[in-house]
Design brief:
By secondary structure, the protein is an alpha/beta fold. It has one domain: Rossmann fold (3-Layer(aba) Sandwich), CATH 3.40.50. About 25% of the residues lie in helices and about 30% in strands. Helix 3 links the parallel strand 5 and strand 6. Helix 1 crosses helix 2. The radius of gyration is 16 Å and the shape is globular. The structure holds inosinic acid. The site of inosinic acid has 14 residues, from strand 5, helix 3 and strand 8.
Length: about 180
């Protein structure tokens, strides 16, 4: 275990099994009308690459980088799209892949934006769901692997100050690392 990690929440094997299970569900749900799988960078990159290999459908992929600002109300105007989609999503199923759902500020805006582009459907697959977090909207994950509490977690794509993304497990960061 990395010296900055307090404890492991989900092991490599637990993640592998959960991603496999999720891929199976997505394969069944979208059979006949494969989605465009949209990764929200950077945190989703490892989850998405594993999930794609567990979805037995011919999916297109694309990526977005979005930064939200403002606190109270969230609208599609309140998100800064740093990198937009290359794909026309009109009439298509879109599956957004996110690392962790916290306040849902960014995803609420991104989902609104993609719905406005006349997608057939826009759903969310999140690796982790901070279930007790204060949400800015009633947005929920349509698919998820694990629930977590109000702790700062790293690994398997998730960072603190761009570090720890390459850890094979998901762990709780020692508070002294982000408090210093
Ligand atoms: P939201 O818009 O508040 O839902 O923020 C979601 C984003 O914040 C995620 O995509 C992560 O990049 C980041 N984030 C939230 N909680 C954590 C955490 O515990 N560890 C690492 N990143 C986090």
């Amino acid at each position: 275990m990395h010296a900055d990690v307090e404890r492991i929440l989900f092991t490599e094997e637990q993640i592998k099994n959960a991603v496999k299970e999720l891929g199976k569900r997505i394969t069944e749900d979208y059979a006949g009308d494969p989605p465009i799988v949209v990764g929200i960078l950077k945190g989703s990159f490892i989850f998405m690459s594993d999930l794609m290999r567990e979805i037995d459908l011919n999916c297109d992929i694309d990526f977005m980088i979005a930064k939200s600002y403002g606190n109270a109300t969230v609208s599609s105007g309140a998100v800064n799209i740093v990198k937009d989609l290359d794909t026309d999503i009109t009439g298509r199923n879109v599956l957004i892949v996110e690392d962790i759902l916290d306040t849902a500020r960014t995803l609420t805006a991104v989902k609104d934006l993609l719905m406005d582009r006349s997608a057939k459907s826009v759903k969310i697959a999140a690796l982790l769901d901070k279930v007790t977090a204060q949400r800015v909207s009633d947005l929920t994950a349509d698919y998820k692997c694990f629930d977590v509490g109000n702790e700062f977690v790293v690994g398997y794509g998730l960072d603190f100050a761009e570090k720890y993304r390459g850890l094979k497990y998901i762990g709780v960061l020692k508070p002294e690392i982000y408090e210093r």
